[in-house]
Fold this protein.
Amino acid sequence: MKLRNVLIVVKDIEASKKYYHDLFGLDMLLDNDGNMILTEGLVLQDEKIWNSFINKDIVHRNNSCELYFEERDIEAFIEKLEKLYPDTIYVNKLMTHSWGQKVVRFYDLDGNLIEVGTPM
């Protein structure tokens, strides 16, 4: 068995596609009208479609999982993030763990938690 994708729920799929392209360089592989597959296995799904599948309230910013990315030049990444998305809500600004890894955590446009860290 092989994990193929990770799906996140978004309110505005076009805005999210732009966000993940602008910040992480992810490109669209398939657009299935509200279900969009990006490179690196990230799937964006329109909130209305997800809600019709599960028929339950969607809880944004639930802090139960995160998307993790690695970036060697994390300071340049943060500059880009703050320039392109100045209203970003941070969980923690740039910090250094005791083992030496630098990380920053923040929410995307829909409250999905993202961590960007330097490679270990």
Q: What stands out?
A: The beta strands are 6-10, 28-31, 35-38, 42-46, 66-70, 90-96, 102-107, 113-117. The chain has three helices and eight strands. The radius of gyration is 15 Å. Residues 61-120 form a domain with the 2,3-Dihydroxybiphenyl 1,2-Dioxygenase; domain 1 fold (CATH 3.10.180.10).
